[in-house]
Amino acid sequence: MSYARIAHRGAAGTRPELTPAAFTRALELGVDMIELDVQLTGDGALVVLHDRLLGRTVAGSGPVRERTLAELQALDAGTWFAARWVSERVPSLDQVLALTSGRAALNVEIKSPPQDWPATAAALVSLLEQRGRLAETIISCFDMGALAAVRERAPAARLGVLWHSADLAPMFARAAALGAAAVHPLWSLVDAAVVVEARRRGLRLNVWTVNQPDAIAALAQLGVDGIISDFPERLLPA
Ligand code: G3P
Ligand code: MG
Hints:
Elements (H helix, E strand, L loop, with lengths): L3 E5 L11 H9 L4 E8 L5 E3 L20 H5 L19 H8 L4 E6 L6 H14 L7 E4 L2 H10 L4 E6 L5 H10 L3 E4 L6 H9 L3 E4 L5 H10 L3 E4 L9
Parallel strand pairs: 1-2, 1-9, 2-4, 4-5, 5-6, 6-7, 7-8, 8-9
Antiparallel strand pairs: 2-3
Bound molecules: SN-glycerol-3-phosphate and magnesium ion (MG).
The site of SN-glycerol-3-phosphate has 11 residues, from strand 2.
């Protein structure tokens, strides 16, 4: 019944996603891990942002990859959620590493477009090594190419294969090919047989994004290893 409590985009259900406020809230709730999305800025920094285009959660428009970190950090990342979050800014991955150090592990999901995969992988591995966080971090992605680029640079990296299609066989095949540590399927695709197969292969099974209490309880009962939720307060403490 015990599973890792993983906050999705920080505590995205109650705070503007992927902002310091969201990460601080997840830490207050005592989560084991925080899932966040990263991509590369025009000046080669790793920034914590879900969408490749500005406009939904961060003021402005156009591709993130064409902006510098300083330009991105000047933009309002909180007002879309509620006026009181007007001061929230987009953090760099390094800032989130500092905030969470010794308090929660990270699940870093790569959102960079294909042309940025090699540089993203290089920057990510180097930053995690520099901060002593490579061993505790799960690096996940829906794209095999991005994970392969990480694996090339870091034989010890813990990779997580993200998946949302009904047929789970290719997810397990990718995990085997990459020497992944975990599989991260959409929660509704998981049943007892999937749990058994992940165990048989020695893979951790972390599911996303589970917000309904009855679904959380059912997945915990099935024996998944981690549950990723926008509402980490709904996940049972160990
Ligand atoms: O990593 C799990 C989940 O975050 C994948 O989808 O779109 O929320 O990044 P998305
Ligand atoms: Mg994500």
